[in-house]
Amino acid sequence: MHLRQFEIGPYQNFTYLVADAEGGEGVVIDPSYGLAPVVAAIDDDRVKVRYVLNTHSHPDHVAGNREVQEETGAKVVAHRSAPLGQERSVEDGDRVEAGRLHFQVVHTPGHTPDSVLYVFEGHVATGDTLFVGECGRTDLPGGDPSRMYDSLLRTVISLDDGLVVLPGHNYGRTPTSTIGREKRENYTLKPRTREEFLRFLKE
User: Fold this and answer.
1) Cα separation values, 81 from 77, 84, 98, 113, 116, Å
2) Residue 107 burial (10 A CB sphere; 0-12, 13-18, 19+)
3) Residue 149, CA atoms < 13 Å, CB-side half-sphere
């Protein structure tokens, strides 16, 4: 697998270029502002980008959708509730294939109603659901603390410990982590009741 992580734009966004090999087929995950380094890498690495995978619909995660489409002909993929006019709408449990790569969709509402994770080849792109050492905000339009509780403390916590976490922003002490490490160290994943979690988010 060929995987590159780019910190671009004014908000410490991570955009990912993933392919089954250099010169192979792949995807771009969450193309943000300032996409020039990613476009250059697509050309340099000769990647045939089949899809743009959006983890959610906030502008800083979709700003480069059109540019990637114009450069590559890729189709935009997002959760069916995303207001993006995407060419392919997905739901929890769906799978997106690009070359030899398979991306499993995991719906994780809370930061937004359309938030999803993409699990692939020992990695998980977590968007703004889970950061290294933190979780996404729930106080923006569409945010829902109770649904975030379910997404973090039922869905994320059940993922394989060995999965490499690819977050949506460079907010942590390292640019990547693992689910196992986040279970041990991320205070937002500490076992809590729903009521305790809702109080915790208000602190």
Assistant:
1) 11, 9, 23, 7, 11
2) buried
3) 14
Residue 36 is inside which H or E element, if any? helix 36-44
**Cα gap 141→173, rounded to integer Å:** 28
Chain centroid offset of residue 190 CA: 21
CA distances from 30 to 8, 46, 56, 154, 202 (A): 11, 19, 8, 24, 28
CATH number of 2-202: 3.60.15.10
* CA 23-79-25 angle, 5° bins: 5
Which amino acid is residue 171, in one-letter code? Y
Q: What is the pLDDT of residues 69-104, one digit of tens each?
A: 999 999 999 999 999 999 999 999 999 999 999 999
CB count, 10 Å around CB of 93? 9
Single out the residue of 59, 111, 112 nearest to residue 81, CA to CA.
112
Whole-prediction pTM: 0.98
Dist. CA 163–CA 91, nearest whole Å: 21
Q: Are 4 and 14 in contact (CB under 8 A)?
A: no
pLDDT 10s digits, 150-198: 999 999 999 999 999 999 999 999 999 999 999 999 999 999 999 999 9
